[in-house]
Amino acid sequence: MRRVLDLFSCAGGAGWGYHLAGFQVDGCDTAHRPNYPFAYHRGDALEYLDHLTTTGDIHRYTLLHASPPCQAGCALTIGTNHSQGWGGTHQDLVTATRQLLDATGLPYVIEQPNGRAPIRKDISLCGEMFGLGVIRHRNFELGRWNTPTPVHRRHRGYVRGYRHGIYRDGPYVAAYGEGGGKATVPEMQTAMGITWTDVHEELTEAIPPAYTRWIGTAFATARQEVLV
Q1: Are 141 and 169 spatial neighbours (Cβ–Cβ below 8 Å)?
Q2: Rounded distance, CA 177 to CA 204, Å?
Q3: Nearest CA among 207, 218, 213, 209 for reference residue 145
Q4: d(C-alpha 221, C-alpha 215), whole Å
Q5: CA angle, residues 55, 56, 57, in degrees to nearest 5
């Protein structure tokens, strides 16, 4: 069976998508994640990746997925927070993550939200592509494999809630923060297709499993084409 290592795994949004695509999933996150639905190593993701590479245990995996913290380059940090003088200094973990992933010699995926994170946008996915109740744009850099980029569908309307003091209704919910018309926990669960956790912080950080289900299926197809 294909096996994926889910680094910076949080509550398992990415991992569940790979599971649906037919992968066995192992996670790693520095925080205690009792809701993570698969085998799980608690610890620093980069230290763990380096350890697996050094020992050779990394070769039990078919694909590596990493979602490093993105505060240094996310849209909120470089946009509203920067313009208002809010926030502090954030560490860029993307570059270090890529270096360690490259050292494994294995195919990999790096996921980041929109912003200025230093990744190639080989694939950009959006909830509308999968008929979800969130927009949640995410970009993915692919290492040692590739696949055609899907067409980005036109959004059907606004994200419900207040923005710059104006309230708008719409077919999508805001799965981040609290108040101002943002989604409740049950709304976030329904909108993203996540049922195994009801922790607000985990839901606000998660990506919809539909994204990595698509990526996992595309990876399996690409590998099969190479073998043929």
Answers
A1: no
A2: 7
A3: 218
A4: 10
A5: 90
Residue type present at position 183: A
3-state secondary structure the chain: CCEEEEECCCCCHHHHHHHHCCCEEEEEECCCCCCCCCEEEECCHHHHHHHHHHHCHHHHCCEEEECCCCCCCEHHHHHHHHHHCCCCCCCCCHHHHHHHHHHHCCCEEEEEECECCCCCCCEEECHHHHCCCCCCCEEEEEECCCCCCCCCCCCCCCECEEECCEEECCCECCCCCCCCCCCCHHHHHHHHCCCCCCCHHHHHHCCCHHHHHHHHHHHHHHHHHHHC
Per residue in 80-129, pLDDT (tens digit) is: 444 445 444 457 899 999 999 999 999 999 999 998 888 999 999 999 99
User: Distance of CA 19 to CAs 27, 97, 188, 212, Å?
Assistant: 12, 23, 20, 9
Measured between alpha carbons, how far is 128 from 131 in angstroms, rounded to an integer? 5
Tell me whether strands 138-143 and 108-113 are parallel, antiparallel or unpaired: antiparallel
Q: How far apart are CA 189 and CA 182, in angstroms?
A: 13
Answer for the pair 64, 78: CB distance below 8 angstroms, yes or no. no
Compute and round to an integer the Cα radius of gyration of the chain.
17
What's the pLDDT band for 17 if we cut at 50, 70, 90?
Answer: very high
pTM over 0.70: yes
